[in-house]
Amino acid sequence: NQYKALKERVSHIPEARRPRVMTGLVYRGRFEIAGGASYVAQLISDAGGVYVWADNKSSGFASVDLESQMARASDSDVWINGGEWPSLKAMLAEEPRYRQFKPFVRGNVWLYNRLVSENGGYDYWSRGITRPDLILADLIKIFHPQLAQDHEFIWYKQVPAE
């Protein structure tokens, strides 16, 4: 019920006012993304975003060449679910071409690593499966902060510059 209520909160936003969202990271020379039929793509849509790979048929992860990702996602507004980057500077050290993506340039990169155990386990993967409403609330706060002023982030945090 909470998930449905949150989804309803953003349902009135016209597509022109929804942020374009990209996912993923470069791995072995290719860009690993969430498929357009994945739960990540559904969460993006339900949170009032437009996923740049929504037409991709994969229900899991997909691999695209970096050039395709640049062509499709370079003007995205938000980047979520990338690597284990401690900073934008570390991102650039890993892959200098990340600077060609608008979310990187604007510092609008978000990861679900706010809660990590001392052994490196991500709470997102432990609790998130049973609380998709909390994941959705985090994403709404990222995409439409004015509609989630009452929400404190659970898992997502913005990647700092340094």
Cα distance spanning the termini: 39 Å
Order of helices and strands: HEEEHEEHEHHEHHE
Task: Specify the number of helices.
Answer: 7
Major β-sheet annotation:
5 strands, mixed
Average pLDDT: 94
* pLDDT < 50 stretches: none
Shape: globular
Q: Round the Cα radius of gyration to an integer and report it.
A: 15 Å
The number of distinct β-strands equals: 8
Walk across the major sheet and give the strand order.
4-1-6-7-8
Please state roughly what percent of the residues sit in beta strands, choosing from under 5%, 5-15%, 15-25%, 25-35%, 35-45% or over 45%. Answer: 15-25%
Q: Give helix % range.
A: 25-40%
Structure commentary:
The chain has seven helices and eight strands. It has 162 residues and is α/β, with parallel strands linked by helices. Strand 2 (25-27) and strand 3 (30-34) form a beta hairpin. The termini are far apart.
Briefly summarize what is shown.
The chain is built from 7 helices and 8 strands. It has 162 residues and is an alpha/beta fold. The radius of gyration is 15 Å and the shape is globular.
Note the topology:
Layout: H1 2-10, E1 20-23, E2 25-27, E3 30-34, H2 39-46, E4 50-51, E5 61-65, H3 66-73, E6 78-80, H4 88-94, H5 102-105, E7 109-111, H6 123-127, H7 132-143, E8 157-158
Parallel strand pairs: 1-4, 1-6, 6-7
Antiparallel strand pairs: 2-3, 3-5, 7-8
Helix pairs in contact: 1-7
